[in-house]
Amino acid sequence: MLIKGTGQLTKLLFRKDRVKIIVWLTILLAVSLAAAFAYPNVYKTEQDIMAFGLTVENPAMVAMIGPGYDLEDYSTATMFAHEMLLFTSIAVIVMNILFVGRATRADEEEGQLELVRSYPVGRLSYLSAAVIEALIVNLILAFVIAFGLFLSGLDGMDLESTMLYGSILGSIGFAFAGFTALFSQLAETSRGTNVFSFGFLLIAYFLRAIGDIESEVLSFLSPLGWIVRAYVFTENAWWPVFLSFITAILTIGLAYYLNSIRDMGTGFLPERKGRKRASGFLKTMFGFLLRQQRLNIFAWAFGIFLLSASFGSIMGELESYFADVDLIKAFLGEYPNESLTNQFLSLLIGIMALFSVIPAIMSVLKLKSEEFQNRTEFFYSRAVSRPFLFSHYFLFGLIVTVVVQMMIPLGLWSTGSVLKEMGVPFNDLMKASLAYIPALWIYVSLTAFIIGWFPKLSNVVWIYFGYSFIVLYLKELLKLPDWLVNISVVEHVPNFLTEDGNLLPLFLLMGIALLLYIIGIVGYKRRDIVG
């Protein structure tokens, strides 16, 4: 039978991922409940709610978090759904990509699937176990968040609405689990699977952002465009849930078919054959790393550029949109004398900066995957030292950070200066974006530090990354204490758009990054190499 042994393999995957599952579900539930409880304390009056509704109607906010509700429909519940649903969905999607990508192509690439198939199990049993694991995790997530919000007793959060909210998260997560399962059959490596999966997520977000502003047809081409049209807590439209689930069934069915006809260790999009003779640059360490990771870096850089360009095209409308709305001016927050464009750009650049460090972290983590797949032996069989290899991966990550981060001001300026008058000089955009680089280097050096001392715990860096995103996006809403906010390094970046930039924090961040790198290289020299 093609699925013989699926039940036992499902138990095996749950046992292997149990800690990760608990951590993910706990974080998603805690953030959702914390945000839900925060809204009544932040928006206390009808005037506050009206200000929120007017703020999120502008095109820039629509591009970021999706189309809003009618002004008369805004309440604590609808504000929560409008501001939290899309980004929570993206977090759930990332969770599913990582779980399914790990359980399919990564386990196959590392030889674990070959070991499993040496036992009497079906050809499709391991893929089936990965799909079942994703389905159960998403069902648990849907019910936990739904009942958590319902039991909160907050105004407007009735059982049907909270069930819909949780179901949207579970169904969109399962849909992207299906896409990842499909991409794992097309790609020949786990790296390729992740590139296709995260690339598809970026395209989906970009299509939704443009479609929500210009043409609704584009939004309906994106799964993210479906979920923001459920209008939870008002209309409670269930069709996005059903459509996401149908999409998951179709993509998983296609993945089953492709898995049944391909040879193990191969993909339907095999790696392109290289030249017979390597160039001089390819023979260098940096040349090798660039060759190995060029597709991933290009995809992220191009995606960041497109997203930045999409926001740049509407940035000039912010000031005119709220020129006569005194209520919004009174609600600007920390910098009431600054323009709305500058304040929104500050938040946008911070969020995009966190996205831009993802490929850099992945570049450094490649050293760990090469080690665990016994490929670093090929380096150490030659006259190559550990510090040499470790340092090149680290420096390559730093370079990737700079390259991808540069796409933010270039994207914003490329459309903002041509299509609209942004009112923000290119030099200011560049300074505000480059100011994040020392903080982003902390993530790279932290990754190197963990690889140097605790390689099996290297994914901890993603927990810190997620924490930084939560702090950046929700710190004002959650009223987090200063000591919690200051744990995130991006909170120490001077803002060159809304205040005079202080260079001292940048030098301190670079010093911390250097210290983490030095400690990491000491650990890498002392510990045993896997294999």
Structure description:
- This protein has 531 residues and is mostly helical.
- The protein folds into two domains: 1-266, no CATH class; 279-531, no CATH class.
- The chain is built from 23 helices and no strands.
- It has helices spanning 6-42, 46-55, 59-65, 76-109, 112-117, 125-151, 159-186, 190-213, 216-220, 223-227, 239-261, 285-312, 317-321, 326-329, 340-356, 358-372, 376-380, 386-419, 426-434, 437-453, 460-478, 482-485, 504-526.
- Helix 4 runs parallel beside helix 7 (159-186).
- The longest helix has 37 residues, at 6-42.
- The two termini are 35 Å apart.
- 44% of the residues are buried.
- Residues 329-333 have low confidence and may be disordered.
| Number of discrete domains | 2
- Count up the helices: 23
Please state the average pLDDT score: 84
Using only CA atoms, what is the Rg? 24 Å
Tell me the structural class.
mainly alpha
Could you tell me the number of beta strands? 0
Low-confidence stretches: 329-333
**Coarse morphology:** globular
Amino- and carboxy-terminal Cα gap: 35 Å
**What is the beta-strand fraction?**
under 5%
Protein name: ABC transporter permease
Transmembrane segments: 21-39, 84-103, 124-151, 163-183, 195-211, 237-258, 295-315, 344-367, 388-413, 433-454, 461-478, 503-524
Organism: Fervidibacillus halotolerans
Keywords: Membrane, Transmembrane, Transmembrane helix
